[in-house]
Amino acid sequence: MARPATPPPKDAEPKQRARNAKPKIERAALKLFIHEGVDAATTREIADKAGVSEGALYRHYKGKDELALSLFMATHNRLSGLLAEALTGPGKLDEKVLAAVTAYCKLADEDFLLFSFHLVSLNRYLPYDKRREDDPVSVTERIIGGLMSAGAIPKGDPALKAAMALGVVMQTGQNKIYNRLPGPLSQHAPAMARAVLAVLKSS
Length: 203
Hints:
There is one protein chain. The protein is an all-alpha fold. The protein has helices spanning about 10-35, 45-50, 55-60, 65-85, 95-110, 110-120, 120-125, 135-150, 160-175, 190-200. Helix 2 (about 45-50) packs across helix 3. The mean pLDDT is about 90.
């Protein structure tokens, strides 16, 4: 006769709920932040939408502001790595640019809610991100400066060229958020890459 299964420890279920609460809180917060704004959303609303207690939210975050900043920086830091990997990889300049734009688009399509929050929150949260070597803009500026020094593109102001190149993909992404572009963002990657290349090669 089979022995009855050993019941789980009494504290296993609360621990499991605690582990599952964080992603639910983050998804609920993203939806509220996008549709209502960070200032309008409350921790109680986030908890209710996530189906958890307000106390569960405070076990993971000090409040909605820390939660919002954490969600923003998760995408911001990942974007830095993707751009650096694509733009310093093998291949010709047009291949590197296409790889970088494609990586950006895939990040958007992979989790469009999180991507949307990052893009629409840049003005709010970039001041919290002190200029550092590995932020997306600094990565792009440094690589463009290197291309100028190597004679691969015309000399100029790397900061200006970076702003113009990033503007191509960011404005396109913003239009996608506002339903002004059809389909996944990735389908527009080749056209965006050509536009970025034109910016880089302009004098």
